[in-house]
Amino acid sequence: MRPTEEQKELRSAVRASLARHEGAAAWLPLTEQIGVAGLGVPEEYGGAGCGAREVHVVMEELGRSLSPVPYLGSAVLVVQALLASGDTRACTQLLPGLVEGTAVGTLAWAEGGSWDPAAIRADAARGPGGTWLLTGTKEFVLHGTEADVLLVAARTAAGVSLFEVPVDGAGVRREAAVTMDQTRAQARIVLDGAEGRLIGAEGDGGRVLRHVLDLACTALAAEQVGAAERCLEITVAYAKERIQFGRPIGSFQALKHRLADAYVLVESARSAALGAAFAAAAGSSELTRRAAVAKSACSEAFTAVAGETIQLHGGIGITWEHDAHRYFKRAHGSAQLFGPPAWHRVRLAKDLGLTAA
Description:
single chain; alpha+beta
């Protein structure tokens, strides 16, 4: 299915805004003028009432520019976790600020290098006055040091549950992580008896996180496609202008083959990412398998195309003066985010009934 006129206009608006505003400065124009943070939010909470296909458009454009804005962590992870929790009070209280972009949210989830809800060991014990006290360490928390809204997954006697934790509360320590990809801010969050408020039903966090994982992989796959497409564009342009042996290097047959292979990878990845986006938009029961396919295929395609960008640019591709190394780092970082391709192939095999659950 072709994009609607509204989706085309959304893409044009986001691309133009990113061209005018560099780096983190793009966040407020994107949220205030275009409303990107509220695309996946129902109108009753101040959102646009759109869905995964519109999120796909935004993520592709953010990937093309390697934008460091907190869209993935705030407008996808936190927003979808709140909606999936079914907690009307929490949604009414937290979503409007997230939609307007005046608040940035983050979901502290991964432990031990795993995004599998079964791997969560952070503990939540009942405290005085109906509160909860959380203890544990969370890794790879997107924009964790700058977030205003912090959701934490921790384990209670009933199972994995979600909690809202004050970002500056007692027992909360946020540490910026040193990452290879400097365009994606991450943090380590240490909780030591931090007070939290239950979001949704106790023990329902595993279900929520599994759903959020599918949506996160769907969104990230779109970002990877946008970035891989941009890699191919700048490499083709360079191959046309770089002269070697008296002719453009793009005229050599071997380079033509490599660029053609990269094009196939990009378009194949696009199909996988769109398949997941359509499943998410339709609420399809096939979302898990399509998200797993998209995360695996798009991670590997982006990594391969970014590698070709480095190779075909030669020495300049690894200098700070050129963006090639930034795409290369984003490719490898995003391949591990939310789990590596191999883990998602295991998820796919389980969903297809090919292995034991």
